[in-house]
Every structure is written in structure tokens, then in C-alpha cells.
């Protein structure tokens, strides 16, 4: 016979293997504390990427200039209408609204609540997020109703040679 | 002497702080207050060694 089963089990002092197979339904005080420490570890690790992207943003601080991007021709967008586009990246949905002859506003259209796309309601004159009926003021992008608490990031636009260009994303004023 | 539930209480407080810091961190990130976001991430990371320390201390007390 081998003495494999004859050993005193080693003291399992670790944070991950805290389940005793023969006794897995039992959670004693120490086991519970281990789980809590493990949870703290998960929180610590999961906040690393946030710190990293925040540091990245901080290094390239200031008004970031993106290559100007043509949104649409002036002729193609009647007053009171909206057109969707992407700015600054390929996956950043944005919306351009023509309010009057030469007043254009553009916002990143991901709702600041849970990032549903925000639509322009021409008849009501407001921007609506259909997911939870969040509403935004079309002139400022500020939330006026529903769950969102943060204004939509505004995109500065420029009219040149009969076309509308997206220039940059405005930073929030602190 | 400390109560035998001191460790658990402390760890639960740490977990609560973790949740609060994480929530604040994400919000501050989207508000573009990146410095605050980094500070909160740092606090969140700092809580982990504290939690381990409390766990180790508790073990010594029991033995």
C-alpha cells in the first residue's frame, strides 16, 4: 500500500482554493473572510484598467485635435433634420442637428445613462433616448428628464465650402 | 481583546468602500476628472493589501 492517504493535509493558506470538497456546503468564519479578501482583490484588479485609461487621457490632455471629418453637405440636411455620423472613432456614434439656417449642433449620441443611441424628435424639439425615456436639451446637450445625469459630449462643427465638418469633441467644463 | 467578529466587520467595511470607490471612479472617469479617477483607482488597489493584512492578523489571533 502506498501512504498517499496517510498524510496530514497541508495547511491550505490561500485565497482561492477555499472550498473543502467533502464539506463544500459549510462556510465558516475564516472561509467567509477569505471570500471577502478575494472580493477585495477582484475590485483592486478591475480598477487597474480604469486607472490606466484615465492616466492615458491625462497624458494627452488639452483639446485633442482629430482629423476634420466631413459629415454631410449643407444641401442634404434641411432645417430641423438630423443626420447620424461617426466621430471621432469608427464606433463613436454621433448626431448632427440643423436647428436653423446656420446653426448646427452635434453630440455624441450614446446616452449618458446606459449608452443607448439618442434620437432627435423633430416634432417635440428634443433629443430622446428610447431605452429609459431620457431627454436632452438640444441646445446644450444637458439632460432634462429621465435617468441620465451627465450632458451629452458636444462636438464642434464647422461649415466650409457647403459641407459640415466635425472638428473636435468639447471637454466638460470643470 | 478584540471581538472575534472584528475581522469580518473590517473586511465588510473594506468591501463597502471598494464598491463606493469603484462607482465614484467610473463616474469621475466619464466626467473627465481623470485625476480623481486615478486617485480612486489607487485607493481601490490599496484596500486589497489592507484586507490581506486584516486576514493575516485574524489568523494570528485565533492560533
UniProtKB/TrEMBL annotation, chain A:
It holds the Pfam family Rieske. It comes from the Bacteria. The chain crosses the membrane at residues 31-52. PROSITE patterns: RIESKE, TAT. Residues 71-166 form the Rieske domain. Keywords: 2Fe-2S, Disulfide bond, Iron, Iron-sulfur, Membrane, Metal-binding, Transmembrane, Transmembrane helix. This is Rieske (2Fe-2S) protein.
From TrEMBL, chain B:
It comes from the Bacteria. The chain crosses the membrane at residues 38-55. This is Uncharacterized protein. Keywords: Membrane, Transmembrane, Transmembrane helix.
Amino acid at each position: 500500500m502506498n501512504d498517499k492517504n496517510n498524510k496530514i493535509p497541508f495547511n491550505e493558506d490561500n485565497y482561492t482554493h477555499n472550498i473543502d470538497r467533502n464539506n463544500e456546503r459549510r462556510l465558516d468564519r475564516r472561509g467567509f473572510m477569505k471570500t471577502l479578501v478575494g472580493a477585495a482583490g477582484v475590485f483592486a484588479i478591475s480598477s487597474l484598467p480604469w486607472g490606466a485609461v484615465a492616466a492615458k487621457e491625462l497624458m494627452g490632455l488639452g483639446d485633442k485635435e482629430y482629423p476634420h471629418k466631413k459629415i454631410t453637405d449643407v444641401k442634404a440636411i434641411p432645417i430641423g433634420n438630423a443626420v447620424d455620423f461617426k466621430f471621432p472613432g469608427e464606433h463613436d456614434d454621433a448626431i448632427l442637428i440643423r436647428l436653423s439656417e446656420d446653426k448646427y449642433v452635434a453630440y455624441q449620441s450614446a446616452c449618458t445613462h446606459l449608452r443607448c443611441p439618442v434620437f432627435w424628435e423633430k416634432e417635440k424639439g428634443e433629443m430622446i433616448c428610447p431605452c429609459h425615456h431620457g431627454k436632452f436639451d438640444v441646445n446644450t446637450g444637458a439632460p432634462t428628464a429621465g435617468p441620465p445625469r451627465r450632458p451629452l459630449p458636444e462636438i464642434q462643427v464647422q461649415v466650409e465650402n457647403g459641407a459640415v465638418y466635425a472638428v473636435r469633441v468639447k471637454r466638460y467644463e470643470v | 481583546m478584540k471581538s472575534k467578529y472584528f475581522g469580518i466587520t473590517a473586511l465588510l467595511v473594506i468591501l463597502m468602500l471598494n464598491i463606493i470607490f469603484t462607482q465614484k471612479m467610473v463616474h469621475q472617469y466619464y466626467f473627465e476628472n481623470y485625476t480623481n479617477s486615478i486617485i480612486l483607482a489607487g485607493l481601490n488597489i490599496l484596500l486589497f493589501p489592507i484586507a490581506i493584512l486584516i486576514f493575516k492578523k485574524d489568523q494570528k489571533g485565533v492560533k
